[in-house]
Amino acid sequence: MKLGSKLKRLRLARGYTQEELADRCDLSRSFISQLESDKVSPSVETLERILRVLGTDLKHFFSDEQKKIIFKKDERVPVYDLPKGVNIEILMDAVEDKELDAKIVELEPGAQTEQEGYHDGDEFGYVIEGSVDIYIDGKRYRANEGDCFYYSGDCIHYMRNPGKQKAKILWIQTI
User: Fold this and answer.
1) CA distances (Å), 70 to each of 33, 51, 66, 77, 83, in order?
2) Which residue, among 57, 53, 62, has the nearest Cα to 6 in the 3D structure?
3) Domain range for residue 22?
4) What is the pLDDT of residues 76-92, one digit of tens each?
5) Strands 148-152 and 139-144
6) Domain count within the chain
């Protein structure tokens, strides 16, 4: 494995220049350049410092394990203890370091999700079938089949199916 090219890829994914990475790690830009071209090798302590700035650690950096790409329908995990008429399945389970949580939410006619309080992150939904009313800080918004919605989690919110048919929503939360 080429250490330098892997570090460069992580740096670019974070949007850092060599100078910015060097400043954040208290290193010189020339050292970062030489490191990325595999002309020098860092000490373990220096590599840990660089990886911390790049948002990872030694274990993940040196892992050859391929990250899971495909999540099969039969691998979905149901969520239990929900209000009557609400079914939720987690689409991606057992994924380390994920930054979003994707679910399929099904609401029977008249059913609604539990009210959620303030939290970090954002929420996005795409209405696959039916329609839903999204309540955000007491104000109602209607989303119909094919519509999508987006809001910040720093509000009181929940969804309700006002229709006569089941509503199905792809719901994604950043975490």
Assistant:
1) 35, 27, 11, 15, 30
2) 62
3) 3-61
4) 889 888 999 999 998 88
5) unpaired
6) 2
Within this chain, do residues 91 and 166 fall inside the same structural domain, yes or no? Answer: yes
Q: Which amino acid is at 27?
A: L
Same domain, 49 and 85: no
**Report field, pTM of the whole predicted structure over 0.70:** no
For residue 21, give the CATH number of its domain. 1.10.260.40
Q: Whole-angstrom Cα distance, residue 149 to residue 109? A: 20
Q: What tens digit of pLDDT does each residue of 33-54 get?
A: 999 999 999 999 999 999 999 9
Main-chain dihedrals φ then ψ at residue 13, nearest 5 degrees: -65, -30
Q: Identify any residues that bridge with 164 across adjacent strands, giving them in sequence order.
A: none
At residue 6, what is the residue type? Answer: K
Same domain? For 82 and 55 the reply is: no
Please tell me the distance from the alpha carbon of residue 78 to that of residue 121, in angstroms, as a whole number. 22
Angle at 103 between CA 98 and CA 106, to 5 degrees: 175
